[in-house]
Design brief:
The chain has twelve helices and 14 strands. The chain is α+β, with helices and mostly antiparallel strands. It starts with 5 loop residues before the first helix and ends in a 29-residue tail after the last helix.
Length: 473
Amino acid sequence: MDRPTALDLAFLDLETPQAPLHVGWTLRFDGPAPSVAALRRHLDARLGAVPRFRRRLTRVAPDVPAWADDPSFDVARHVFGVSPRGDLAELAGTLLSAPLPGDRPLWRMYLVDGLPGGGFALVGQAHHALLDGVAAVQVAQLLFGPEPEHGRADATWIPAPPPSAAAALGAVARTRGRALAGVARATWEALAPDGTSTPSQRASAVLRAADALVAQPARCELERSASARRTVAYADVELEAVRAAGRARGATINDVLLTATAQALRAALRRRGERRETLRALVPVSVRAGDDPAMGNRITFLPVALPVGEPDGRRALALVAARTAAAKAGGDAGALDALARAADALPGPGRRLIARGAARALPFTLVVSNLPGPPVALSLMGRALRAVHPMVPLLHGHALTVGAVSYEGRLHVGLAADAEVVPDAPAIARDLEDAFAALADAVSAPPRSGTPAPTATPRTPARARPLRTSPAR
């Protein structure tokens, strides 16, 4: 039985009218667009490799949800064609504002033809209950990569009947038994993966993680929901420049992304008349084992305090690198993963109580997600994919997210915002590019003794100063 985990279901439990929890993406391709009919045939022929795209969430027994084949599945109910109306980001924001209907598989895709400058785009969405970011990249490789070695998936798909109530209840009993047996072990291993810590040291790690999760300054303007209407904005930088900026300071690509985000948020808060020292970001962390191809969610979250009060980019990067390292060592992400595993052992009311309680007890301002993209160049029906901009969904009570995907030597960033709370999302995206540029400049021109370090604060919010690199492919 294809049963969703407690974490999968949490994304449904936490959904509100102002905060539909679907993942989104904007893919840009070179060349002429295929017809909508040809695109539907192409996708339909490959869906055998991603069976959940033909399944909807159903209740096969009391309190037992499962993914079951949709007997009415028709790819035409999921793939549509639209004409661009103005800017692509503006159109994508409109398309990605609509929630997904629950009476069919939880995904949808739009073919956007006639873009200024040539090429075409695919704007798509899939509910977070269906997949996480890593799974989304795997789906992209299946749907848009080279043809399968043994040809296309068969076109004679017949929906399977849902599992019987007896089989479903038996599967749930086994799942809950395994979850109960594994909770203590998962918690123990998550807090001390090397197995060398003493029980008292591990208990201290739990307390530190709990303190790190709860400690949070007063709420800011970015921590509220006003509407389901979304604005999306894009930024784009050279991946090697980002890597070099981090390497020069002993930091990772993710640290540089978090630092650039902090600098862009500093400018955004100043436009709102706010002065703050830190804002809490949640960073999704994959807990997949090896090359686990399973759909669904295999993630936990790492809370990191972004130094939005620090005007100097290099000092901010040092702070971020130290804080992410401390958060990883402190067991914050491991404690959350253990909580998610524990929820699998509970019936629906207990699972929902944990999900909603964790959302309230885990204060943060925004999610910042960074994914390694496909390791190979992708194409759709012979048209090269040149840019991938993700959209990370907004939990209720939050107005901004930042997602990044590395692909073909570029770091493609997508911002998603509550359109009523953050009308300046495009300006934040430009500030983000300025911050990346300043960090790259700081690496190539270290300050002389007694000279103030160069700042990563954007000088002109209305103008982007991108990295000095070739344009995106």
